[in-house]
Amino acid sequence: MWLNPDEVLLKNVLKLWVTERSNDFFLLQRRRGHGEMATGGVTGLLVGALDNVLDSTARVTPFRILLQVPGSQVSWIIASGAAIEEVNKHWDWLVHNLLHSLSVFENKEDVASFVKGKVKGLIAEEVQGRQAAQEDDPGKFREALLKFEVHFGLPSSEKLVTYYSCCCWKGRVPRQGFLYLSINHMAFYSFLLGKEVKFVIPWAEVTRLERVSTALMPEAIRVTTRQRQREFSMFLNLDEAFGVIGQLADIALRRLLDSKGLELDRVLQQPARITKRILEEQAIREYVLALFRLPRSENLHEVASCSVWTPHARCHTAGTLYTTDSYLCFSSREEGNLVLLIPLSEVLSIEKADSTSALPNPVIVSIRTKKAFQLIELNDRDELVENMNSRLRALQWKRSMFRSRKEGKRSLNVVSQNQDQEICVCLCQSTDQVKERLWEDHFSEFGRGVHMFRTEKIQKLVAMGIPESLRGELWMIFSDASSDLGSHEGYYASLVQKSMGHNNLATEEIERDLHRSLPDHPAFQNPTGIAALRRVLTAYAHRNPKIGYCQSMNILASVLLLYAKEEDAFWLLVAVCERMLPDYFNRRVIGAQVDQSVFEELIRERLPELAEQIPDLSTLSSVSLSWFLTLFLSVLPFHSAVCVVDCFFFHGIKAIFQLGLAVLEANAAELSSSTDDGQALMILTGFLDQVGNEECPGFPSSSPAAEETSCSVAKGHTNITDLINDAYIVRDIEQLRCRHRIRVLQAHEDTTKENALRLVSPDVSIPPEKLADIYDLFKVIFLPSWHYCDSNRSFIERQYRLDRPQFKSLYGLLVPWPDVSNQHTDTLANRTFTLLDQDCDNLVTFRDFASWLDTLYFGELNEKIRLLYCLHIPPGYSLCEYNDVLLTLTETEDDPSVMKSPLLSTNRPLYVNLPPRQCKHSEFIQFCKTLYSMFHGDPEENELFQAIATVTSLVLQIGEVGHRGKIAGSEANSQEGSTAAGGVDARKGSRSSATADNEWTVSYAQILASLLTEQALVNFFEKPLDLSAKITQAKESQYQQRAGLLTLQRASS
């Protein structure tokens, strides 16, 4: 590759380099020790090790070209390469295009300037449009990209994202090299003292990522696959490397294993666009969405340091401004001290003010409530304000267009509001006047509404419990559901109207759970409350059919209806299901399982003594699953649980993590001494039942005595406010989720594999461990096509199916007979694919593939012959094609070759059971060629050839006799028919039909009977085949042979 010209002293050049070619202006040199097979000696080893360890630039590639000016001691490196062929191309270009022109220059400096300008022009053309141009250091990235391509031989579409210098450990031996991270793989290369080590790990095989610390490795990254572990250390920036590795593994697995259940951002759905910069922006975006609980559809635009005027503190607070599609967000430098969220829908104007020494680069943001926010110290203020105003104008235009349609829907909203009032009557009448007064004071000082200043003071107020009169309003503010409500006027009413009368699985489950939602509460003991709950749940199922309805949504919606109007409750449910608890409410509850895995890690980190006493934390996580799914509503007394919901809407999911840790810490001693899972469950259940509130429970009880009893119990035990205040502070939830999602998805894949094997195992004779190996081979063959091909179907949709090229690749790895003729093998593979494609969708399932392989390796003689026979009736019968053939079959139930054949087994696949039609002459010849190819390399090769020759001759004679008989009979019938018709045209027609009916054919039964006459053939087909050896060979060659799409070089041991 061409390099930016770099000076080098000529006297130092010859120490480590050997000149291979030269002329008056250029030198082609080889690195000393490279390419010296017999004479390299210690020099080559030392130079190679030095190149790999130091490797500060790409000038240590084995070959390079220097520009030299006669009489000068200074030269310039202008090209380098890992292979002599590459450098020779550059050399030839220089000789043919520049050498003659340089001879006319009289000034030496002009020669150097001319050549350097030409080389820079070549580099600019090469870089233009390529990924390197997007990097901070395009030249250095180009060099790394070339090494990545040369070392690993991956397809050109395998995009390199970034790379790191690091050390890979093998036991106690470190290997210094480079770790390359691409969109589908992580790859490592090292060359040290003549020992080359390189390996590739697909992200799809990563099961665990973690940071470890040992005596040898103070800080290291451990990457675990199903086969082994790899440790990497000595990163210049381990935090950055660990974050990027986690992001790439998470993205790849989400696209691969759960593309429907886990929504990816638009930019991540196009792997070719992923760069290191995009990953960094994505990490910031995830942080912002989680911190401010914004909709997943929001895109992050600008991040700027600034200060905001805080009236309550009478000063400017320094922090960071984040701008998205629909929001202005501010967070102080110390997270949690000050948070400000301003929806653009509330903004009237964004204007620049005059800059002064006290107020540099000020910006005034005016909102609808006649309030303004002042931002100062904004860099690039003009561009930032212009961008924000552009989005504001677009939003205002959209709202004005929507407002014109609002009148037609207003009548529906009136009905909804009337129904809301009936539900809200059921709220508990007692409120805490002291708390209300505190909140009113807070509103007057920090503002009211979604754009209030959120400080540590509001956190304390939330922990005390929100007054019931303000609960619905503040839930709407903290979750920002109020913005959704304001921007979707009439949306809920239209959903209710559209969903009326629809019956599906979701509505049936909703009807079944309606009366199980807070059955003791008066609000849901009457038709009004049940009807409102039905409308909210049904409307949401209609809005989001991917989620539809899941259990625990009824409990959550019931609580929301108690404190918010019906339409408000709907938007609160939207916020919880789609933003605050992503991926919780679906069939596989991926999000909840990820958080349970995160919770286990937090237990080990924050409660190490408890984790030591209970090594298997799955028991605790199984108990805590309901805590997360229902926000403690199903396990705590109602009034205490509602306080938890208050904290959840303010803090997000970390409030549930913190409270869960506090509960376990309070019961750590009892849990450590528990003897079984049941006892641990009783301990936690008993504790949670007695967590009370200082105001006493809020459910109106059926009897005053019961209410008095529950009140006294609560007062004598743990107070929910104290429990919340004593909770651990949990941060970086999103980073933990990213890493633990990898484990959960891989666990789901393991379960899917077990289910697939369980379904296939009863129908085949392949041992379970070998069947599992075949499944792995089947899956790995699929992965490259998923990586590099543009397919509209996700991996889940095609999980156990291979297309034709993939099947042919796996066919070549596992077929038991030798590959003598590539053309003949390719024909057989195509016919086998067609035969197995019973659904006619150009895909073969794992079940069909395993059944076919079972027939080849463990089937009876007649099963194998029948399968081979079917393959030679072009194009290889599938179920679709066979339906047409059934009309022409003449076999009856009395034919022993059909109905009484032992092949009619219910355990065998359908293509074996189908009775094949007659075989034509050309098809029989192909059948014989296949048998000949199968016998090559067999110890009894000569006997088998003689036997098949005898069988072929016998079958040909049988076919010929039958053919003559058909012709004779046909001619007799033809003469009778023509005499009766008395016309020439009739004779011509009868001859053409006779020609079609009288072709040379033999039946499967005739071929099978002929083969059974030769004992050598019988012995060959009944001989046991070693599937284990074939699987082992397939594993060894799989990385070199992935349907021509991927070539991976095995790691050096």
TrEMBL record:
Superkingdom in the source lineage: Eukaryota
Keywords for this protein: Calcium, Cytoplasm, GTPase activation, Metal-binding, Repeat
Name under which the protein is recorded: TBC1 domain family member 8B
GO MF, one annotated term: calcium ion binding
GO cellular component: cytosol
Domain Rab-GAP TBC as annotated: residue spans: 465-652
Residue ranges of the region described as Disordered: 968-992
Pfam families per the UniProt record, alphabetical: GRAM, RabGAP-TBC
Subcellular location: Cytoplasm, Cytosol
Keyword Ribonucleoprotein: no
SUPFAM superfamilies: EF-hand, Ypt/Rab-GAP domain of gyp1p
GO biological process, one term: glomerular filtration
